[in-house]
Design brief:
With about 400 residues, this protein is α+β, with helices and mostly antiparallel strands. It folds into three domains: about 10-105, no CATH class; about 120-220, no CATH class; about 235-375, no CATH class. Helix content is about 55%, strand content about 10%. The protein contains 16 helices and five strands. The protein has a five-stranded antiparallel β-sheet with strand order 4-3-2-1-5. α11 (about 265-280) packs across α15. The longest helix is centred in the last third of the chain and has 24 residues, at about 355-375.
Length: about 400
């Protein structure tokens, strides 16, 4: 592949114009735009530099993957341009798949340059899945720098700041936050905190990213490594001996687990089916009714704990196990790690005591809310028995008159 030479702004404008003349539409959907750029590689009048600029403007993993493929065969100035383009995408949280890299270039924990002076503090997730994440870097002779993030499991990253402070100020702010929130912050591996922040940013809705759009720029002031796209959570090594044990249903007694919700709209069809069984005109024995309820619960576990919901629950269990282990709740930490491992490994969850208790709690909350709503709602339709009692009461009132 040819190298790229220094070009003037006029030359750049001309190259970009020729790319558009060849059929590239910058406003096209990303998948269509990348397909067109792939087809134009090597076309007459289309330069590699123009392709690189066009790909850099498309903030998707697919554009990063194409840049990585181009980089494996590039040299000189073009390779530098490609690496700058990939760096710009990484600053925006966009990574190409590791499979696109030659084996020698795949980054590993051992191969990455060590980060010096980094530490982290984490709060537990509250009932809404919100938590505080601090990453702190010591500055020799100049105090500390702290990256402060507010993360939601549902809404992503919705607060980020970077500020200098002294060790005394850090201790004071930690004590003040713990006092006001009524929870303890734990000292954590900075890699865990970094993944939580990066993952939260990727899950932040586009409409809210303007408020945290400088996250990756702030991050680079503390951390030189590329933003992580996955994490081998340390709880799996910490509790390796306990991962084969069945997680206890007693884990549901912990508020950090019991309060974790699946969206009511997703759970409601299963809850309605159970409520229908209990109110059916067909007379069922308690055993028959419970058998049918159990079937609905097992189906809800199999269907709801797959895909995105299962991934979110797994990550919540991993981080909560990590928090439990550092706040003196080792048995609960082991149960949470074992439950996370079952989700990670795609195990059959339907008969597990914890997952049964978890799903029954989700369904029970919806059913209880519906029953409360029905009790509070004026009755417009009476059953025959209610109508008969109402008539008797009306006749009694007339006789008393």
């Amino acid at each position: 592949m040819a190298s790229v030479k220094e070009t003037s702004p006029k030359d750049i404008a001309g190259e970009d114009a020729k790319l558009r003349e060849a059929g590239f539409d910058p406003a096209a959907p990303p998948a269509d735009a990348i397909a067109k750029l792939t087809a134009l590689r090597g076309a007459s009048g289309v330069t590699d530099a123009a392709l690189v600029r066009a790909l850099t403007s498309i903030a998707t993993p697919e554009s990063a993957a194409m840049l990585m493929r181009m980089e494996t065969r590039a040299a000189g100035g073009l390779r530098r341009e490609l690496r700058r383009a990939l760096f710009k995408l990484r600053q925006r949280g966009i990574e190409g798949p590791l499979a696109e890299l030659p084996a020698r270039d795949v980054p590993t924990a051992a191969a990455q340059a060590p980060e010096i002076g980094l530490s982290a503090l984490l709060s537990p997730a509250d009932a809404d899945g919100a938590r505080v994440v601090w990453i702190v870097k010591a500055r020799p002779g100049a105090g500390l720098k702290r990256l402060w993030g507010l993360v939601s499991e549902r809404d992503g990253l919705f607060g980020i700041t970077l500020a200098p402070l002294t060790r005394k100020e850090l201790r004071h702010e930690r004590a003040d936050l713990e006092r006001r929130a009524g929870v303890s912050l734990i000292d954590a591996d900075w890699r865990v905190a970094d993944f939580i922040l990066c993952d939260a940013w990727r899950r932040t809705p586009e409409s809210h990213r303007g408020e945290v759009g400088n996250f990756f720029a702030l991050r680079t002031e503390l951390i030189a490594q590329s933003p992580p796209i996955d994490l081998s959570h340390p709880v799996y090594d910490e509790f390796a001996a306990e991962l084969t044990h069945e997680p206890s249903a007693d884990l549901m007694q912990e508020p950090e687990i019991a309060a974790w919700p699946i969206a009511p709209a997703i759970v409601k069809p299963y809850a309605d089916e159970i409520a229908g069984l209990r109110n059916s005109v067909i007379v069922l024995s308690r055993v028959q009714q419970e058998d049918r309820v159990a079937t609905v619960v097992e189906r809800a576990i199999a269907e709801l704990l797959a895909g995105e919901i299962g991934t979110r629950l797994r990550r919540h269990l991993e981080d909560t196990a990590y928090y439990f282990a550092r706040t003196g709740r080792r048995p609960q930490a082991a149960w949470a790690a074992a439950a996370a491992a079952r989700l990670r490994d795609g195990a059959d969850l339907k008969r597990g005591a914890f997952f049964q208790a978890f799903m029954r709690a989700q369904l029970g909350a919806i059913i209880a809310e519906e029953e409360q709503h029905q009790r509070e709602e004026p009755r417009l339709i009476m059953t025959p028995a209610e109508a008969m009692r109402a008539q008797q009461a009306a006749r009694a009132r007339q006789r008393r008159r």
